[in-house]
DNA sequence: GTCTATAGGGCGATAGAC
DNA sequence: GTCTATCGCCCTATAGAC
């Protein structure tokens, strides 16, 4: 993944102390965002909630946007570590699982939505890079999964894997948004429909 | 739909002049947003671009958020008027058509994304009301379309229309954001895949 | 009724003090 | 290396001019 490492390694000293402190701030920030989402997230409010000063925050993070991006990245990384998805899961299944997990931390979904919205505007390079990278990474991984499932007959073979990958991601993102706004929206139900129609008709005679 | 009419009808006078001016501002604002999207959209910048004063804007719109919501609502209304969709179009077809139209005005899609992101946060009542109403209205309309198409055999009958409606909306929204970030994403292609898998297998023996 | 001028409180970013 | 002080901009609210 290579990350944004060029800037992260600040050469000369600042080894332990600085990086540790930075990580502490990041960890605490994840909790804060998970609770309250993207609202009340001025640098001053975040600093207050974390227990550091406004200036300290800007010392470790060049901009507010960079902080938001890094918080989300760190939370994503942490989530991947705590629950790696088993080999055999279906592509839609992976997204369903991810969506289910996200339901427990609406603030992070909201943060994600904020970042994507920012990425669409010009003049937000950090957010845009984050979103672009994330989509292409997930799209590529999902497309590979789907191709494998097509070979094993669990996904219709007459569909372009790339197109399906984009579709599954879009459905997952869009449904999470709808669900956050209206809890009567059946997120897993709709994802289930998608999974069903993507599987070969022979495999499920009528079911 | 009843709209937000309680406040809109300001009783006593203010008939022509004010409402006309307000509409002029809205019309001009649509153009501005279509061009530049949600960026550079401080009330002062918008006022400048439109050719009115900052104060004039706040006279007609109670808050910045309300202005954004009304601009998007007005643009949506205008789009519906200029290109009403013919009776027979498929549900996915309607969304495809809408997506194709949106491609010519990326700024409005971006504005939409901003509004939805804001709606997910607390403390943005106007945006939330807009998003909630919009989703439930479109969902209901689409579900009705889908049920009709199920009766005429153009959509698989073994799928819950509500679930499909949410899914189609999500796919459309999600794919548009992916496309805005990366033009190599094949929006219409992915929507085509969705349409294909939603149609009954018998109708399309293999094709 | 329509709008201009102005003030208040908060923001992100930055320069310079410990 | 850490953080306080400050700058310019923002939205909102209000007072009063056309």
Question: What does this entry show, briefly?
Answer:
By secondary structure, chain A is mainly α. Chain A is built from ten helices and no strands.
Q: Detail the poorly predicted runs of chain A.
A: 1-13
Shape of chain A: elongated
Element string of chain A (H = helix, E = strand): HHHHHHHHHH
Helicity level of chain A, as a percent range?
Answer: over 70%
Report on the structure:
The structure is a homodimer of 207-residue chains. Chain A has 207 residues and is mainly alpha-helical. The first copy, chain A, has ten helices and no strands. Chain A has helices at residues 5-8, 16-36, 43-50, 54-60, 64-82, 91-102, 106-120, 125-151, 161-181, 187-198. In chain A, helix 3 crosses helix 4 (54-60). The longest helix of chain A has 27 residues, at 125-151. Chain A is elongated, with a radius of gyration of 19 Å. The model of chain A is unreliable at 1-13 (pLDDT under 50). Chains A and B meet through helix 7, helix 8, helix 9 and helix 10 of A and helix 7, helix 8, helix 9 and helix 10 of B. Chain B binds a DNA duplex (18 and 18 nucleotides) through helix 2 and helix 4.
Question: What attributes characterize this protein structure?
Answer:
homodimer; 207 residues; mainly alpha; 10 helices; 71% helix; 0% strand; DNA-binding
What order do the helices and strands come in, and which of them pair?
The structure is a homodimer of 207-residue chains.
Chain A: H1 5-8, H2 16-36, H3 43-50, H4 54-60, H5 64-82, H6 91-102, H7 106-120, H8 125-151, H9 161-181, H10 187-198
Helix pairs in contact in A: 2-5, 2-7, 3-4, 5-7, 6-9, 6-10, 7-8, 8-9, 9-10
Chain B binds a DNA duplex (18 and 18 nucleotides) through residues 13-14, 17-18, 21, 42-44, 52-56, 58-60, 62-64.
